[in-house]
Amino acid sequence: MSSIGAGANDHVVRPQLVASLDDQSRDWELVLRESHHRMKNTLTLLGASVRRDFTRASRRDVSLAVDRLERRIVAFGRLYQLLSDNDDPSAIAVEPFFEKLCGALSEAVLEPAGIRCEAAIESGRLPAAQCHRLALMLTELVTNAAKHAFPNRSDALIRIELANRDGAWLCTVADNGIGATGPLQGTGSRILEGLARSIHARLHGEAGQGGTRVTIVMPTVA
């Protein structure tokens, strides 16, 4: 009798199982694409920084340039550790996690490019999966702004805000740069949209002469 019952439910159980496995596979592919994309952008930024430092450096300044490069590589290591250490099944405290992330982004990406970073982060807790995917999205937006928003500006600023409002977390990345036509282009845009869908988040972007502002709206429970 039990085998007959199991056979009768196969048409229900198997599609659900296949759908679940498909979702997991798509999620993994999405994160993997983001990792490759992030590494490519990281190496681009690092290469530009090295070229700038060593082109300007005199012989006596070479050691200082090497020290700056070493500190930046260490900061990139901290950044990737935060983005990849997602095995914790428990909830993550939002404020210390994103303060560390903003510090690593500032030291690794923004400060070498002469960009100031301001951060205002509220306290709270998020499931690890949501927290890390939101961190990937924030990193993508900050890195994109650093690459494209400030071709010739001495007072460059990126401000990061994270707040819990009316049952949703609002994560905003705003710059005072030239004003983009959209949050991201190409591969970065597709990855960002895919990450947003994976945590049921929405993206809102606005750009003008005062710069670009992108807000991620993520429900507290996705």
Automatic annotation (TrEMBL):
Keyword presence, Nucleotide-binding: yes
Superkingdom: Bacteria
E.C. designation(s): 2.7.13.3
Keyword GTP-binding: no
GO molecular function annotation: kinase activity
Pfam families linked to this entry: HATPase_c_2 (PF13581), HisKA_2 (PF07568)
Enzyme class: transferase
SMART domains, per database record: HATPase_c
Reaction(s) catalysed by this chain's protein: ATP + protein L-histidine = ADP + protein N-phospho-L-histidine
Keywords: ATP-binding, Kinase, Nucleotide-binding, Phosphoprotein, Transferase
Domain Histidine kinase/HSP90-like ATPase: 129-222
Protein name, entry field: histidine kinase
Biological source species: Bradyrhizobium diversitatis
Organism ancestry: Bacteria, Pseudomonadati, Pseudomonadota, Alphaproteobacteria, Hyphomicrobiales
